[in-house]
Amino acid sequence: MTIPLVIRIKSKTAVPYKITAINPDTHDTKTFGFALPDNATLDMLPGDHLYIHATIDGKPVKRPYTPSSIPGTTGYFDLTVKRYETGLISKYLHDREIGDTVLMSGPNSGGHWVDGMAKQVGFVAGGTGITPMIAIIRWILAKGLDVELFLIFANKAEGDIIFREEWDEDGRGHASFHCYHVLEQPPAGWSQGRGRITEAILRGHLPPPGPDTVIFLCGPPLMADALEATLKGIGYSEQAIILP
Questions:
Q1: By C-alpha distance, which of 102, 71, 96, 101 is closest to 9?
Q2: DSSP string, 185-238
Q3: Best label site of 54, 100, 112, 178, fewest CB within 10 Å?
């Protein structure tokens, strides 16, 4: 019996991908499923990104998005996108329907996970900065790698937490997965983080600096810049802080 050859797709130019599914995640976030040939997958590592291309108000625009589906998946890939009023591409994508095509190029190499790079991995995410993290976490858990995972996820309100059910299930089903939520507007009785991510939160909910530890950091630029400086102050080396 011959094993079907898997085609690995990567394109420097923008090519069309058809939307085959749209699933709401939160009040302003959707996961879009895009078709690939049955024997094809994106040529990428967990954390790599695609560029979405569009012409908006007569001007060409492109923005990077990291697939939320596990690399190596054949037949389709997912993008999870939050709609921002000031986000040209996010609004464009949220206006698409099943059957529409979207132009994309890539995948492109970014701050990604490579098997064996660490035994303890911290993830610090704000809002849709979670999308590269979900691909990496799903990859590590699906492969059963001997890696301990620590996620700190900041959002405005509880209803903004993307993949909330999955985080809860991962926490129940995997002793190696730890998740700590931080909310600016927590509900009554909220028992986890309040306000914004602080040095104390980082120290309390990430693995300590060491040769077998890396930290993935992704979120709004001002947040990411401030927390990168804080992480370096705690003792994480520049090489240990990865920006997808």
A1: 71
A2: SPPTT--SEESS--HHHHHHHSPPS-TTEEEEEESSHHHHHHHHHHHHHHT--G
A3: 100
Residue 103 structure tokens: 């132009």
Any catalytic annotation for residue 65? yes
18: helix, strand or coil:
strand
Q: Please state, for a pLDDT cut of 90, what percent of the chain lies above it.
A: 92
Q: State the angle between helix axes of 164-173 and 130-143 in degrees (0 to 180), rounded to the nearest 10.
A: 30
Partners of 126 in beta bridges: 154
Q: Is 86 helix (H, G, I), strand (E, B) or coil?
A: coil
Let me know: does 75 contact 35? Beta carbons within 8 Å: yes
Residue 13 annotated to the active site: no
* Exposed/middle/buried for residue 13 (C-beta within 10 Å: 0-12, 13-18, 19+): exposed
Catalytic residue (one of 17, 65, 92, 236) = 65
Q: Mind listing the pLDDT tens digit for each residue in 45-90?
A: 999 999 999 999 999 999 999 999 999 999 999 999 999 888 899 9
Q: Is this prediction's pTM over 0.85?
A: yes
Report d(CA 66, CA 36) in Å as an integer: 16
Tokens of 212: 């077998």
Q: Tell me if residue 49 is catalytic.
A: yes
* Cβ-contact 81, 63 below 8 angstroms: no
